[in-house]
Here is the input.
Amino acid sequence: MNNRILTNTFVIALGALLCCALWGSATPFIKIGYQLMLPQSGVPSTMLFAGIRFTLAGIITVLIYSIGRKQFLRPKKQNWGKVMQIGLFQTIIQYIFFYVGLANTSGVKGTIISGSSAFFCLLVASLIFRQEKLTLKKIFGCVLGFAGIIIVNLNGLDFNMNFFGDAFVLFSTIAYSISSVLMKRYSKDEDPVVISGYQFIFGGIVMIVIGLCLGGTVVITSVKAAGVLIYLSFLSAVAYSVWGVLLKFNPVSRVTIYSFMTPVFGVILSSLMLSEQSNVAPLNLIITLVLVCAGIIVLNYKKEPESPARPR
Here is the structure.
């Protein structure tokens, strides 16, 4: 695909919002999956569930992409270590900390802390990996988006902090931020879709082993359960592949600013799909959308260069 198309603002917005909508839809589908497939709740079973989901996501990614290219695709020999690094941060560390943390904190606080990922992506990309400059405009755009995440969760927010809950979710967010920056760096030498597929397989298998060793169980006894698992695997395959392609051709901050929309989609889709009464006031949701959109506009706004004056 033409690189100029992938750096077009409209294409970035369309692709990033597709990813955020898919990730937002994961929340209600994961909850449904737990009800259908986990005979016993707890971190081991949820880790096993996640491992199966991500391993399938990797297999789906590799198969679809290989069929499209009419050859079996795998990373170059020298890039296997890079794939495993991304799998370590994006799948293993991120989700282990996330599942343990979420079990020890409220869903509202987990959403808000996870929603800070755009901040951490910007800081990691600019201060640690020096991939772009840290500017006031970028910080302001992230502040607007993060304010929106707080507004949408305002009714259930409390300010107590605990290590194995809130801090673990924070560690999960930092791991995701590092993986996003590594994806941009390593996609110069390897196709980001290939990286996504194989890092899922590697990370998923590790999580399956951990889940089984800790006594986790997953039971698939219905077509509905299988359908939910396949959908969750498919959305991860599509979302992370598209996200990786966008990161390859654009600054990290320009793509990750859209991640503030993920919890917004999650709130809307959860209220529509689950038999849970949403405690989000319509006005709060409207304010959130305005703030998140404002942050996206601020970060993507570019002043048009002035045309040279024509001689009279």
Summary: Residues 3-135+158-251 form one domain. Confidence is low (pLDDT under 50) at residues 307-312. The radius of gyration is 20 Å. The first helix runs from residue 3 to 6.
